[in-house]
Amino acid sequence: MKFSTLATTAACASLISAEANLFQNSFENNNHELPSSKKDHRLTLLKNIMDKLDISEYFNKDYSMGNMKLPMNVDDLLYSEKEKTSSKLHKAIDDLKNGAIHATEVITNQFKVGDNYAIRLIDHQKEGVSSKQQSVLDILEPNAKKYSGYLDILDEDKHFFFIFWQSRSDPENDPTVIFMNGGPGCATVGGSNFLGVGPAFIDEDLNPIYNEDAWNKHANVLVMDQPVGTGFSYTDSEGVSDTFAAGKDFYAFLELFFTKFPELTKNDFHIAGESYAGHYIPQFSKEILTHEDRSFNLTSVMIGNGLTDPLHQYPAYHDMACGVGSGADPVLGPEECDTMLETLPRCLSLIDACYNTESVWTCVPAALYCNNAQLGPYQETGKNVYDVRKECKGTLCYEETEYVSSFLNQRWVKESIGIDPSQIDKDFEGCNFDINRNFLFTGDWMRPDFVKDVKYLIDSEVPVLIYAGDKDFICNWLGNLEWTNVFEYPDHEEYSSKTLAPWYVDEEEVGQYKNAGLLTFLRIYDAGHMATWDQTHAVQAFVQDWTFNGKIHQNSTAHL
Questions:
Q1: What secondary structure letter does DSSP report for 198?
Q2: 162 touches 189 (CB < 8 A)
Q3: Tens digit of pLDDT per residue, the chain (560 long)?
């Protein structure tokens, strides 16, 4: 029997609810216990639920990526045109390899905050330091101060690695921006930090290439690896397995950061990110705003190619893959497109059941079924899910992914940026698939909370920018436009009635935008999932416009 309507799915959810309630308590109060072995009774229960929904073919008992082909954000990749590396740069790199600076410095420079919190810090641009004492961060960013280290939650054994790039222009007055990657479980330090946000790229020879349009051109930029266990952040505890728990760690991180850099609390502060940050940013921002005694203010948020409202974003997978109003050539043929349309009603009914119950037992089946049914046909083509113009090559769809990982896995680089000695021999991984799986199996993927959190932000008078590269498939611009069009907020009628207007940078049309009240949508032409990487100059223009002027104008300019 096939359940393809909301009514039948809801009936099935009711049928299994008594059985599921026996185990529901283990997933409540942000203290989730996760399926960990084939003998775990919850695996059997979930399999029974999938059987009753008649979607068990999308259930992978080993919980590996396997044939499920779950979406994974790939933000630790890099692409840049080849440029020659100067002999001066080679000499500086050789000096570093010979042991100019060691990780022990970050351990000794510890700043404690109470009994349970500490900051370990390296100042990478001290006065009077010789060229031989430069760190690798001095090479990546020669024109601004920078810091790296850990923010530690000692009683929970959580250690968050970060790099702080001060503004190249006016660090005392420029806004502060924290940028985060998605996944969940994909690193930012080894991701967008080398993908247009940070001050340098890495080429195939593992040499840094200066980024003229880095976000710290006119802003103080903070990148951190979160949730704990991502990238260079580490813990020996169980870590976290949903966005809500990660948000509490994020708030603690920011309080520690601003305690160490109190001079920045007077500046504007913005939160930005991409992909699964469409979950992170709304919830993390709400967490911040609930603390009336916080030491810093939140000025705005910027979400790029995010996953925020699955119920209204998943229908756009068909349109993006089949070239329906997408502005891109179709990837799939008529048969595959028909299959996506046939499976869509059931997918949406499962997501709707998740929205209505917010139960792990409805939200997990929705994620497994919809990700396979709506993403699977595209992934089977071998095309890049992050850019419909490209083939999927390399470990995470880009051969360039390994440039950054190889660069960061060099021992001298780890020592130079201050990686804890206990972690120095561990391989850096751009994405932690265990974290990704753990979030999925707590139902985090499909929950409705995050679009509700956007409403909370707007009601709290926090401006929201939704931007999207228009060649991305995985979190495409059509889905982001659709969820903002149906999003209920005070200026909804004005926003939804507007058509997209041309957006120009330096008199060249590079995208489209619209705005009403505190919500703005921006489409960026010829950019994939990582718009920060594909269109660095256009992105620099909107970041400056948004952070300095408080809105996107029809004509933006990236100032020198």
A1: S
A2: yes
A3: 333 333 334 344 443 343 334 334 433 433 344 444 444 555 666 667 767 666 666 555 343 333 223 433 223 222 223 333 444 445 544 544 554 434 344 445 677 777 788 899 888 875 444 444 578 999 999 999 999 999 999 889 999 999 999 999 999 999 999 999 999 999 999 999 998 999 999 999 999 999 999 999 999 999 999 999 999 999 998 889 999 999 999 999 999 999 999 999 999 999 999 999 999 999 999 999 999 999 999 999 999 999 999 999 999 999 999 999 999 999 999 999 999 999 999 999 999 999 999 999 999 999 999 999 999 999 999 999 999 999 998 777 887 778 999 999 999 999 999 999 999 999 999 999 899 989 998 999 999 999 999 999 999 999 999 999 999 999 999 999 999 999 999 999 999 999 999 999 999 999 999 999 999 999 999 999 999 999 999 999 999 999 999 999 999 988 76
Q: Does 300 qualify as catalytic in the annotation? A: no
Catalytic one among 76, 387, 472, 545? 472
The yes-or-no answer on residue 275 being catalytic is: yes
**492: amino acid identity, one letter:** H
522 domain-assigned: yes
Q: Which residue in 275, 285, 349, 556 is the catalytic one?
A: 275
> Which pairing describes strands 208-210 and 117-123: parallel, antiparallel, or unpaired?
unpaired
Residue 208 inside a domain? The answer is yes
Q: Which long-range contacts (CB under 8 A, 24 or more apart) does 95-100 make?
A: 95/131, 95/132, 95/134, 96/134, 96/135, 96/136, 96/139, 96/412, 96/413, 96/416, 97/410, 97/412, 99/412, 99/415, 100/132, 100/133, 100/134, 100/135, 100/416
DSSP state string for 508-538: EEEEEEEEETTEEEEEETT--S-HHHH-HHH
Question: How many structural domains does the chain have?
Answer: 1
Residue 218: domain span: 87-311+447-556
CATH number of the domain residue 161 falls in = 3.40.50.1820
Catalytic residue among 470, 529, 545, 556: 529
Spatial contact of 136 and 147, defined as CB atoms under 8 Å apart: no
H-assigned helices in 164-227 = none
- Angle formed at CA 519 by CA 513 and CA 521, multiple of 5 degrees: 25
Neighbours of 380 (CB within 10 A): 11
- Cα angle 383-537-166, degrees, rounded to a multiple of 5: 110
The residues, ordered by sequence, that sit 6+ positions from 481 with a Cβ below 8 Å of its Cβ are 468, 500, 521, 523
User: Is 320 contained in some domain?
Assistant: no
Cα dihedral 168, 170, 174, 176, rounded to 10, equals: 50
Instruction: Tell whether 34 is covered by a domain.
Output: no
